[in-house]
């Protein structure tokens, strides 16, 4: 399921949903972009709609997981998977309440920066 809301000053929309729905939307936008005779600039605004929020979420979780010490990975895996819940950013404080293994939303935001180098994987 995909949901959206207007941004505070109505300059755009915020879209969220489960991973599969967002991926389907991403693929649909790319297919429309490729097939449409009306869209002349194939790298332009319309394709920008498909800039994958899903990809950013997955990459931030992967970077975090790889950066963990090897002995911590198995212990933290359930918390990383739980963070894929589409409501995690909105309800992050509730997910983390009283749980020492919970991962803060701020932690993932640090790993979401695309300019960051990927951490070296350590076995």
Q: Which descriptors would you attach to this protein?
A:
123 residues; mainly alpha; 2 strands
Q: List how many beta strands DSSP finds.
A: 2
Category from helices, strands and their pairing: mainly alpha
Rg (CA only) = 17 Å
Oligomer: single chain
- Percent of residues in beta strands? 5-15%
SSE order: EEHHHHHH
Estimate the global geometry from the Cα principal axes: globular
The count of helical stretches stands at 6
Gap between N and C termini, in Å?
Answer: 37 Å
The helix fraction, in percent, is: 40-55%
Low-confidence stretches: none
Number of domains: 2
Record the strand order, biggest sheet.
1-2
**Average pLDDT:** 80
- Major sheet summary line: 2 strands, antiparallel
Question: What report would you give on this structure?
Answer:
The structure is a single chain. With 123 residues, this protein is mostly helical. It folds into two domains: 2-48, no CATH class; 53-111, no CATH class. It is 53% helix and 8% strand. The chain has a two-stranded antiparallel ribbon. Helix 3 (53-67) crosses helix 6. The longest helix is centred in the N-terminal third of the chain and has 17 residues, at 19-35. The radius of gyration is 17 Å and the shape is globular.
């Amino acid at each position: 399921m995909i949901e959206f809301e207007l941004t505070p000053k109505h300059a755009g929309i915020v879209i969220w949903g489960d991973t599969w729905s967002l991926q389907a939307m991403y693929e649909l936008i790319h297919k429309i972009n490729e097939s449409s005779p009306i869209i002349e600039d194939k790298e332009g605004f319309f394709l920008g709609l498909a800039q994958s929020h899903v990809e950013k979420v997955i990459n931030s979780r992967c970077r975090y997981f790889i950066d963990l010490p090897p002995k911590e990975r198995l212990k933290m895996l359930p918390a990383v998977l739980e963070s894929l819940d589409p409501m995690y950013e909105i309800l992050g404080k509730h997910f983390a309440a009283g749980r020492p293994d919970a991962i803060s939303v701020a932690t993932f935001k640090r790993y979401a920066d695309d300019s960051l180098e990927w951490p070296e994987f350590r076995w």
